[in-house]
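In response to the reviewer comment on reproducibility (Comment 2.3), we provide here a single inverse folding case reported in full, input and output, so that an independent group could reproduce the run without further information from us. The structure tokens appear first.
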């Protein structure tokens, strides 16, 4: 499908956190003084970037910690976005929540302000994991946030979890998974802890202060995740993402409706516009991004300049590489006919040798119309994608 025929996604980066977590490489600051100036600058950015050619069916407020902002401010942001952009009435409007920053009243206000999907960064319910991850919330706070979101009327609820944490066991990970599905969230993201350059955890790893969990244990936890969630009615649609299967209008069970519509835009080459410091946008064959600095972001917009930090044109070769990587990370895989038409190649011939090597090792499966990773292959996504490239 051409980008012009697809609805776009709007991402808003709220760059404030109560405290920095040592594993996180997202841009945010802990000083909240600039919050109100930031919101004003954000609204200016919306006005300056309005594009009548785009129609949006998702709006995602992430960060940072968007839930440091109260319901009234979130309402103002949504309202201003609707004034600047064409956002469809049935759009998915998601707010990321840190359980250490919310109350029942806040959830009620978020709902009133137009948010219809909540994603809670639970990460774990286990005290030692939360402490290790430097989180500001307890397992009890996570339970309370889930209960309050549901009491406030949010039916579309997603939870984020992290595993592969040093000293974590399969038993304790299963405890987290069991607690997570008790509230029947529609969506679960289960991420393996990664050590990103520039973070305190990365530094500790380099200096041998931190010992990561051994790879076989992480692999076992990944397999446990797939098995446990599948047994409990969750369908994997991307390496780390699972949607709950529910009965559709034809009486069939399907998980499609519960996927994160917004995140799927990133994996399917849909257009998206990112606002706020460090946010990235992707339109046609161009990608551009904002500066990762709140002060400069505000100064630029107050001076009538867009706070761009860079842009790149994406060549056909680059698009092909991304299509392989993004296709392989989804359970639907690379759709071979579409790939061949889009890039004017023959996928099966072009990668014949690599495909047979990976098939022989049980890492990929080629069916009539698609190339998908096996669950074991998913663990080696990066190196497999590199082989194709
Ligand atoms: S993980 Fe979330 S709460 Fe922690 S620093 Fe990153 S954005 Fe902030």
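Designed residues, in position order:
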């Amino acid at each position: 499908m051409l980008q012009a025929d697809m609805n776009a996604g709007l991402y808003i980066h709220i760059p404030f956190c109560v405290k920095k977590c040592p594993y996180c490489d997202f841009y945010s600051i802990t000083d909240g003084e600039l919050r109100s100036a930031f919101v004003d600058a954000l609204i200016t950015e919306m006005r300056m970037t309005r594009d009548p050619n785009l129609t949006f069916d998702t709006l995602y407020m992430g960060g940072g910690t968007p839930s440091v902002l109260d319901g009234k401010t979130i309402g103002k942001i949504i309202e201003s976005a609707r004034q600047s952009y064409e956002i469809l009435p049935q759009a998915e409007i998601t707010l990321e929540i840190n359980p250490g920053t919310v109350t029942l009243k806040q959830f009620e206000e978020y709902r009133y302000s137009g948010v219809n999907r909540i994603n809670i960064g639970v990460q774990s319910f286990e005290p030692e994991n939360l402490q290790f991850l430097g989180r500001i919330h307890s397992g009890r706070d996570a339970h309370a946030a889930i209960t309050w979101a549901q009491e406030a009327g949010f039916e579309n609820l997603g939870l984020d979890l992290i595993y592969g944490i040093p000293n974590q066991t399969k038993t304790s990970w299963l405890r987290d998974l069991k607690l997570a599905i008790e509230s029947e969230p529609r969506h679960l993201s289960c991420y393996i802890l990664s050590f990103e350059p520039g973070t305190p955890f990365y530094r500790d790893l380099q200096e041998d202060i931190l010992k990561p969990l051994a790879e076989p244990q992480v692999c076992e936890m990944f397999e446990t995740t797939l098995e446990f969630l599948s047994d409990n009615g969750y369908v994997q649609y991307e390496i780390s993402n699972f949607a709950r299967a529910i009965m559709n209008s034809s009486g069939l069970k399907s998980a499609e409706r519960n996927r994160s519509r917004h995140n799927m835009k990133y994996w399917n080459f849909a257009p998206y516009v990112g606002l706020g410091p460090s946010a990235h946008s992707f339109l046609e064959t161009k990608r551009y991004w904002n500066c990762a600095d709140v002060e400069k972001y505000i100064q630029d917009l107050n001076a009538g300049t867009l706070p761009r930090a860079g842009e790149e044109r994406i060549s056909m070769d680059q698009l092909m590489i991304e299509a392989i990587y993004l296709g392989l990370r989804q359970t639907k895989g690379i759709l071979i006919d579409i790939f061949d038409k889009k890039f004017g190649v023959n996928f099966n011939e072009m990668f014949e040798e690599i495909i047979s090597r990976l098939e022989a090792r049980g890492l990929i499966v080629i069916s009539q119309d698609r190339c998908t990773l096996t669950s074991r292959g998913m663990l080696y996504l990066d190196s497999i994608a590199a082989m194709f490239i």
